[in-house]
Amino acid sequence: MDDKRYQPLARDAMAYVLAGGRGSRLKELTDRRAKPAVYFGGKARIIDFALSNALNSGIRRIGVATQYKAHSLIRHMQRGWGFLRPERNESFDILPASQRVSETQWYEGTADAVYQNIDIIEAYNPEYMVILAGDHVYKMDYEYMLQQHVDSGADVTVGCLEVPRMEATGFGVMHVNEKDEIIDFVEKPANPPGIPDKPDFALASMGIYVFHTKFLAEVLKRDAADPSSNRDFGKDIIPYIVKNGSAVAHRFHKSCVRSDFERESYWRDVGTIEAYWQANIDLTAILPELDIYDKSWPIWTYAEITPPAKFVHDDEDRRGSAISSVVSGDCIISGSTLHRSLLFTGVRANSYSRLDGAVVLPNVRIGRRAQLRNVVIDSNVTIPEGLVVGEDPELDAKRFRRTENGICLITQPMIDKLDL
Fold this sequence. Notes:
alpha/beta; Spore Coat Polysaccharide Biosynthesis Protein SpsA, Chain A; UDP N-Acetylglucosamine Acyltransferase, domain 1; 9-stranded mixed β-sheet; 10 helices; 29 strands; globular; ATP-binding; ATP binding; nucleotide-binding
């Protein structure tokens, strides 16, 4: 990119985050919260990645559409994202489904979630719209995608991942020509089209789109008048533009933000218990694939005021210790041993307990002599003294939500049903 002619486009853009997803594959983790509000990485929520990417990219106007079980998400954004100031030409709007178009109509799809608030968007008069999914973990500078969108003259630019071709069967796949112009859009194809320069790979949609605002308003209005539409970007808007306009693919590696320690472009849909557990546990590695310690691209979140973590007791069989683990503020490791585990804020691990491969959400109490292996523990759970998880697969499956690979999700209602 030529710095002499380069002017940031992000200052003329608005980011619009679609954060209404149920996240049903996360099972009981989303019983009380939407998927974007699920905790991640010791301090953050999943939505903080999309929001931080927008902020770090230079975008200062942000809207978030919420719908499903939104209280936890809204409270988090009110606490952690209230620093954007109108007097600095900044804005942060939380946009719950509020039947603004019809007294009987909630958000009927991702496109409808934008269309119902198009008057609010137009009041800010952004030149460009960056539409984002609020439930993925990645670091990306949207400025590069904006620049490609303007340079190409496309009606829409679609963020895409390069994935092994036969692993793309669960995605919306972009069939592109040699110029990365999208010539067809295929939803979850059995035989995904390869990329011209990498035939063994396919371009999978990330759910990230860039539009000129005026064009987006026009296409959303047309879609809203179509009674057969699903009101969805992936199912309706993008295929319509591919067929009747111009659409270009933006490859994620061109705008992925990597520190010196990150070797590959990192993007995760932590939409299953196993994927969620793995992505959190990955952070305990010496050189994790995702560098959350990169100060040049911080992950902004609600900065809760907490005391430091503390490790106490130094007896032979009762030593507060943590190996290859991430431990957040206000945790007290009291004669407990942690190995390859990630603890969120406010966890108490009591004497003689052992955690191995544990993802422990905020304010959990772990009783004495508990032995927990390969678990995700929901927030505010009290683990009984002596509970053993991770040794007897059949018993674990009866008591908890156990995945095929042996990861157990533990919630308080599950604990309450135990006959101990």
